[in-house]
Known about the structure:
Elements: E1 18-21, H1 28-45, E2 49-53, H2 62-77, E3 81-85, H3 89-98, E4 103-104
Parallel strand pairs: 1-2, 2-3, 3-4
Helix pairs in contact: 1-2
Amino acid sequence: MSCALAAGLPHVDANAPAVLVLPGPVTRAEVAGLCADVRALLAGGGAAVVVCDVAGLGPPGLQTVDLLARLELAARRAGGRIRLRDPDPALHALLDLVGLRFQMEGQTEEREPARGVEEAVETGDPAA
């Protein structure tokens, strides 16, 4: 049996960002390799965002915060950003506590109105 090869490049969705799945607890020795992976995904795919799936990281701690800060720094140096997928609510709270802001998947970016939301105006309000 044989089949004809399709002409041209295989279909690639240019709008889908690259995804990096972060495994269970990450050791300090693995951080440099993960930063290199982020840089490679940004350089190779032409994407501006790498989605980091953080669901498997386990309970958050300062080591997790350090990892995410280093990944964001590596991404920014490569001209991109990281976005977090499936963060634990405790991780979200810890990042807020230390003052780090990451874009979470499913959230709108700052200054971008949420889809389908209209501002209500009361009839007695003066015009702005």
